[in-house]
Every structure is written in structure tokens, then in C-alpha cells.
UniProtKB/TrEMBL annotation:
Keywords: Cell outer membrane, Membrane, Signal, Transmembrane, Transmembrane beta strand, Transport. Residues 1-18 form the signal peptide. SUPFAM superfamilies: Outer membrane efflux proteins (OEP). Its main location: membrane. Pfam families: OEP. Belongs to the outer membrane factor (OMF) (TC 1.B.17) family. It is found in: Cell outer membrane. The lineage of its organism: Bacteria, Pseudomonadati, Bacteroidota, Flavobacteriia, Flavobacteriales. The keyword Signal applies. The keyword Membrane applies. This is TolC family protein. It comes from Winogradskyella poriferorum.
Length: 480
């Protein structure tokens, strides 16, 4: 009984801990990298490139094929052993082994292996880029949840102040120190804030669901994140010159590496297309044998009358008959030789070299070479465009980060000013020197300034992390 109670208590403790789990940003990013469908598809592309590389390696290995055939013939058929036509039923079998090896094919096999290596590297770069993109999506979604939660806390804390003001205003109205309109104004402010809180709660829930969907987590109701301890952490990238960040991005970013690998692939494809113009030299070796269980006939000399005299012609001048003595034979049916003996007696081998020289194939080779040249030029333009796009993107990210920092600093100053104005308005309202409408407007400006500060803060954090990512810091090593 005690054991059952202990197990039950442990279950409830574990269940409660699972319900209370809050995901950190690092956990979310790591989970997304392990479970995201797009990343899994990119990993499959890497596996396919490994298969392509294995196939390219296989081109350097001789081909080996073996064949076995068994058949039964009834009626008039040619005996595969004697090659004579006979009417009977017999079982025959044959087997062969063939080996082929390409000695020279214009270095196409070597180029195919080079292409497979480059293709594998390009697939890995595409996977790395996909991971970076997913990490940014997760970080953006995560910071959106934190921003919405921070805004919700601002609205709740300020609503608490409003409720305190309602109590105080009610006392002053009851004492006749303030008109009833001030109380109604404060209550209207409270109602408006309650509506804003409901909207903010909806925003938090929606952003949590969006993040959970991005992570492929279906338990929306209990999913939550750790919303504390995330501040502005500048690793020094924001202070670097934009040219230094652009140079680092060109060296480290997968976009450029992918475009560079595409150029190399196009160069290899051109060499492969040109290799078709070269002769192909291959070697071959073949072994074959056969067996049949059919009987055959041999001529046997009659022991009782071993010879026979027969006329073989006449002498034209004299008309004299010419005779000859021949063995007196008669046909005797004999059984088929044993299987092993036939396989040994009927085997044969063939070997040699084969040279194929391309002369004319309807300009297909020339067309393929021309297409490969065009593809090479296109890939070079794409590399150049990728460098320009990356430079523009990094520069834009740099400007965005600088602008977000200025916006954050301006939001801090605005909050300080609005806080002073709010405290001053509160003091005047408490002593009856201002009305409820003016006080509520001052409070509204203060609330908005706190929300604006939250928005500016997390916008700067995200844009700073984007800049660090372009500088070459891995997504899972970004610090918040």
C-alpha cells in the first residue's frame, strides 16, 4: 500500500513538473533544429549526396555479372552440346560470368567523383543555412512572446494603480472634495485598461501558439517559455565597422558558399561534357559453359564383321571397278556425360579490349558542351549577385541595428520624461489640482512609453542577434 502511494505521489510530482516546464530560448532552438521538417528534408538531401558519392566511387570498380539459365525442350530441337537437330525431350543448362572495366573514358569517372564531393559540400551548406534561418525564426517568435508578456505586465501593473486611484477618488467624491465626473473618468480608464489587458493576454496566447507550431509542439495549452533573464547582450559586433562585418559574412555565410559550390559544379559539368569527345577504352573477360542431359549416338564397329568392302568408283579408260574397305559400324545410343564433366568439357572464355571513338552524334555532344558553358556563366553571375545581395542585406542589418539602438535609447529618455510627468500629474491629482481626465491622459502616455520601450528593447535585441549571425557567430551560441 505504501509503495502504491509513493508511486502515485511521484507520478503527480513528475506530472506537475511537466506542466510547469518553461522552455528557454536555447531549448527551443535546439528542439527546432532536431525536429523541424525543413531541416529533416535538408538532412535527406545530404544523405542523397552521400549516395551520389558512393555511386561515383563505384565507377572505378570493375563490373561483374553472372548468369544461369535452365530450360527443357520437347520435340525437334538443337542439342546445345552436339548442335544436332533431334526429336526428343531433354534438359539443358548454361552459365556465364562477365567482367568489364573501363580503362579510360576521358576522365569522366574522375570528374563524377569530384562533382559528388562538391555536391555533398553544397548540400551541407544548404543544411547549415536552413538551420540558421530556423534559429532566427525561433528567436524572433520567442522574443515576440517575451515582448507580449512584458506589455501585459505593464498593463496589469498600471491597472493596479488605476484601481487604487478609483478607491482614493471614491473616498474624495464621498467627502465632497472631487466631483463625481472624476470618478467616472477613472472608472472609464479602468474599463479601457481591462480591455487592453484582455487583448494583451490574447496576443501572448497567440504568440505562444505560433511558437509552438514552429517547434511542432501540439500541446498548446501547457506550452510556455522562460520570460526572465533576457537582456541586451552585445558581444562587440555592434561596435565593429560595417565593412568588417560584410567581409566576415562573405567568408562565413552559407549563401556565398552555396553559390561558390554551384560555380565549381558547373565547371565540373563542363569538363564532363568535354570528356565525351574522348575515345573510351574498356577491357572485358567472359567465361561460359553448358550442360544437357540428352542422349547421343556414336558409331561402333561390329566385332563380328569389322570391315565391309564397297565400290567407290570406276576407271574411266578401262571401265574397271574400284573398291575400298571401310569399318563396318552401327549407331549406338549413349547416355549424357555427368554434369561436372560437361561443365568442364564445354566451357570457354573470351577476353579483349574495346575502343569506342566518337565521330558524329548529331551535334549532341557539342550542344551539351555549349549548355554547360552557359550554365557556368550563369552560376558565376549568380555568385556575383549573391555577394551583392549579402552585402546589401548585411548593410541593411547594420543600419537596422544602429537605428534600433537609437530608438531604444530614445524610448528610454521618453520613458524617463513620461514617468516624471506622470508622477507630477499624480501628485497634482492627489491634492485636487488637476482633474481625472488630465491625469488619465498623463497615465496613458506613461503606459504607452513603457510599451514602446519594451518594443524597442526586443526589436534591438533581435536585430543585434541578426547582425551577430551575419558576423559568423553560430545560432546556438548567440547570447541574450
Amino acid at each position: 500500500m505504501k509503495k502504491s502511494i509513493i508511486v502515485l505521489l511521484l507520478f503527480f510530482v513528475a506530472f506537475g513538473q511537466a506542466q510547469d516546464k518553461k522552455w528557454t530560448l536555447k531549448e527551443c532552438v535546439q528542439y527546432a533544429l532536431e525536429n523541424n521538417i525543413s531541416i529533416k528534408q535538408s538532412e535527406l538531401d545530404v544523405e542523397l549526396s552521400e549516395v551520389e558519392r558512393l555511386t561515383a566511387k563505384g565507377n572505378f570498380i570493375p563490373s561483374l555479372n553472372a548468369g544461369v539459365g535452365v530450360s527443357e525442350n520437347t520435340g525437334l530441337s538443337f542439342n546445345p552440346i552436339t548442335n544436332n537437330a533431334q526429336t526428343t525431350t531433354f534438359l539443358s543448362a548454361s552459365g556465364n560470368i562477365n567482367v568489364g572495366y573501363t580503362l579510360f573514358d576521358g576522365l569522366r569517372n574522375f570528374r563524377q567523383l569530384q562533382r559528388a564531393d562538391i555536391s555533398r559540400l553544397a548540400s551541407q551548406y544548404r543544411l547549415d543555412k536552413m538551420k540558421d534561418d530556423i534559429s532566427l525564426f525561433v528567436a524572433n517568435g520567442y522574443l515576440t512572446v517575451i515582448l507580449n508578456k512584458a506589455n501585459l505586465e505593464v498593463l496589469k501593473s498600471q491597472n493596479e494603480v488605476t484601481k487604487e486611484q478609483i478607491k482614493r477618488t471614491q473616498e474624495l467624491v464621498d467627502a465632497g472634495s472631487l466631483p463625481r465626473g472624476d470618478l467616472l473618468e477613472i472608472k472609464a480608464t479602468d474599463a479601457s485598461e481591462q480591455q487592453q489587458i484582455i487583448n494583451a493576454e490574447n496576443n501572448v496566447q497567440i504568440s505562444l501558439i505560433s511558437l509552438a507550431q514552429l517547434l511542432l509542439i501540439k500541446d498548446y495549452e501547457t506550452f510556455d517559455i522562460e520570460d526572465e533573464g533576457y537582456n541586451i547582450v552585445d558581444g562587440g559586433v555592434a561596435g565593429k565597422d560595417v565593412s568588417e562585418i560584410i567581409a566576415a559574412a562573405k567568408e562565413n555565410r552559407s549563401e556565398i558558399k552555396i553559390a561558390e559550390q554551384n560555380v565549381e559544379l558547373a565547371e565540373i559539368d563542363l569538363k564532363i561534357a568535354k570528356g565525351v569527345n574522348w575515345p573510351t577504352l574498356s577491357a572485358f573477360f567472359g567465361y561460359n559453359t553448358r550442360y544437357a542431359n540428352t542422349t547421343s549416338f556414336i558409331q561402333q564397329v561390329d566385332p563380328n564383321n569389322p570391315t565391309v568392302t564397297q565400290q567407290i568408283g570406276t576407271v574411266e579408260a578401262t571401265g574397271q571397278t574400284v573398291v575400298g574397305t571401310f569399318p563396318n559400324t552401327f549407331p549406338v545410343e549413349v547416355a549424357a556425360d555427368p554434369l561436372v564433366d560437361q561443365l568442364y568439357q564445354n566451357d570457354g572464355i573470351g577476353y579483349g579490349l574495346q575502343l569506342n571513338i566518337p565521330i558524329l552524334n548529331g551535334f549532341n555532344t557539342k550542344g551539351n558542351i555549349q549548355r554547360s558553358r552557359v550554365s557556368l556563366e550563369r552560376s558565376k553571375f549568380q555568385l556575383e549577385q549573391a555577394e551583392l545581395d549579402l552585402e546589401s542585406t548585411v548593410y541593411q542589418a547594420y543600419v537596422d541595428a544602429k537605428g534600433a539602438l537609437k530608438s531604444y535609447e530614445a524610448a528610454q529618455l521618453a520613458l524617463e520624461s513620461q514617468e516624471l510627468a506622470y508622477n507630477y500629474a499624480k501628485e497634482r491629482y492627489d491634492v485636487g489640482l488637476t482633474n481625472a481626465f488630465d491625469f488619465s491622459q498623463s497615465k496613458l502616455r506613461y503606459d504607452n512609453s513603457r510599451i514602446d520601450l519594451n518594443r524597442a528593447k526586443y526589436d534591438y535585441i533581435f536585430k543585434l542577434k541578426v547582425l551577430e549571425l551575419y558576423f559568423g557567430i553560430p545560432a546556438i551560441e548567440l547570447k541574450f
